[in-house]
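Encode chain A's predicted structure.
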Amino acid sequence: MSSSLKAFIFLLISCFSFSESHNIYAQSSGEFEIARAKYRGGGDWYNDPSALSNLITFTKTNVPIRISNSYSDVSLGSAELHSYPFVFLTGHGNITLNSSEARNVREYLENGGFLYIDDDYGLDQYLRPVMKDIFPDEDFVEIPFNHPIYDQAFTFENGLPKIHEHDGEAPRGLGIFHEGRLVVFYSIESNLGDGWAEEEIHNVPQSLRRQALQMGSNILVYALTNN
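Encoded structure for chain A:
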């Protein structure tokens, strides 16, 4: 599909075809605000604050979709979590949730929300038990390369790009589904967020930064138009 045709299709989507569940998230301006997850346990959920801002700017420049220029930080146990159609979670270290927080996240996801998790190297060992608390009967599954999340505004025939060469492992896109709907997308061994941040922070080459932003746009557009 050509980029111009995709842009036209997404213009129609953004104007007319948001699902009923997402209408509850729209601000009075008709825009959607997204959020970054705050969590307990000592992990650095707050790292690279420029990353999500740069992703928003890139997405709005390349895809005519109605999202706010700003984002909010929201605690996973807060009722405010349910105000955002897309929540981004990242970090290097520990994350803990009590039963109330886990129940809140599950209800958010079951009611139309979408959680994107980017392992910033060090999060995985803490994240998996937390996700089991949220969805005890579900496991992460590998998302095949032909899944639509890899072919929204930009096409990634081989799945996630490798942005940060930490240990040489291949990048993987994992997911959790609820009633057939992808509600959690988890990138591991990729570290898209490093590519979203300002160039001087991680010294990611421009070509990789663009791939990271393109894949991030795919995830964001998918979350806002398929849930």
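The helical segments are 3-16, 20-23, 50-62, 99-110, 124-134, 192-196, 199-202, 206-226.
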